[in-house]
Amino acid sequence: GIQVEQSPPDLILQEGANSTLRCNFSDSVNNLQWFHQNPWGQLINLFYIPSGTKQNGRLSATTVATERYSLLYISSSQTTDSGVYFCAVEVAETSGSRLTFGEGTQLTVNP
Amino acid sequence: KAGVTQTPRYLIKTRGQQVTLSCSPISGHRSVSWYQQTPGQGLQFLFEYFSETQRNKGNFPGRFSGRQFSNSRSEMNVSTLELGDSALYLCASSLFQGAYEQYFGPGTRLTVT
Fold first, then answer.
1. Which residues 58-77 of B are in CB contact (within 8 Å) with A?
2. Spatial contact of B97 and B31, defined as CB atoms under 8 Å apart
């Protein structure tokens, strides 16, 4: 099956710093999503980005499908950005679909 | 529009028992998927339902089953619970199956003692 690798596994920042999270995947995908998991466990949608670039406030994401990677940029980080960030991809299958998740990046933003 | 809802939010069961978890998708969404999250295995796909039919299944034993009703609500059942089934169970819904954005519920945290 498809492999999804996220880096770095852990990231510690001071408030106000910028960061880049990376997601590499091993096969062609037709869906790629970035999530932030809050302390209660819920996955919050950040971006649906199978290709191209999107921005939402301090967050932006770029997926280069032909080179099989995606980047999540966080600018001017805040303590509330702390948590685990997941990349998830989907390969189209004739009998349905599924998301395959990376292991996540644990982000800690210190005041 | 209301998000994905899951009930119950927390559950404690004893080894050998069975459990049923419920998921109500976003209104109008017809595909429901289930995922298991554990510290050791991460987030893993269990199964997906669309139009009351299981369309895709992950690598889990037959003790894990599910179903979808005509209103797209879904339930998953785990029989003969094992300690290793302790996990956060997440439900996701999307408009249709395939390359559509998936939205997750808050999860059900199951503890097996």
1. 58
2. yes
Look up residue A78 and give its two tokens.
């805040």
Name chain B contacts of A50, Cβ cutoff 8 Å.
99
CA neighbor of B92 nearest in space, from B38, B32, B21, B37: B32
Which residues touch A2 (CB under 8 Å, ≥6 apart)?
A: A25, A26, A27, A29, A89, A91, A100
DSSP A51-107: SEEEEETTEEEEEEGGGTEEEEEE-S--GGG-EEEEEEEE--BTTB---EE---EEE
> Which of B51, B43, B46 has the alpha carbon at shortest distance from B96?
B51
In this structure, the dihedral spanned by the alpha carbons of residues A81, A82, A83 and A87, taken in order and rounded to 10 degrees, is: 50
- Contact status of B5 with chain A (Cβ, < 8 Å): no
Q: What is the pLDDT of residue B1?
A: 72
Tens-digit pLDDT profile for residues A40-74: 899 999 999 999 999 999 999 999 999 999 999 99
Cβ atoms of residues B102 and B94 within 8 Å: yes
Closest CA to A87 of A54, A50, A52, A58: A50
Q: How far apart are CA A6 and CA B94, in angstroms?
A: 24
pLDDT at A1 over 90: no
B32 touches chain A (CB under 8 A): no
Residues A42, B98: C-beta atoms closer than 8 Å: no
